[in-house]
Amino acid sequence: MQNPKRRQLVILRRSPYGSSLARAAVDLSLAMGAFEQDCDLLFLGDGVLQLLDGQSAEAIGSKNLGKMLASLPLYDIESVLVDAAALRSFGLTTADLVLQARLVEPAAMNTLLAGYDHLFSC
Amino acid sequence: MILHTLNASPGSTAFRDCLATAGAADTILLLGDGVYAALPGSEAEQALLACPARLRVLEIDARAAGLLQRLADSILIDMDGFVALSETHPRQLAWY
Q: Which of A41, B60, B83, B93 lies 20 to 30 angstroms, CA to CA, from B29?
């Protein structure tokens, strides 16, 4: 058994429907939650677009990633972090997101990452 | 201390996000398509020089790309050097 105190961060930095990687990262996060692995999520760069409210992906034959992400608090996802600079660069605020997220400013990013035992980049 | 393995060309979001994230205690290792960022005089190289992290380039990939003669020996590492970096950095973060 792994030490339950290990802290793990999944970094999501892909746009939601441009590739299968965004969905894969969400699946990874949910699987980790199912196995009681302590896991936080960081939406970085283009990844912040996954959280955009009002997605309707049925027309392109995909599952609605925003809806899946909105359900994350039901799983054991401890906290959801968002790249504040990326959000600003897209002209968005936390009010545009499908769930409550904590903003991380660029100056705090490196310290944040260094606080985790494992980093997963998708 | 984080070992950032950057395997994406300089125009990619991976390149941008990696540089925005890496700190002074970290090392950025360029490999695969990432090696082109080390081209002297390029915009990408300027960005790398402005980043506080230490820079290394995987020699076999630089050789394959035709960059070997263009790069300073001091930043090149072989596979043993890669392994050594993984031993000195508790965390690794893949950018691709």
A: A41
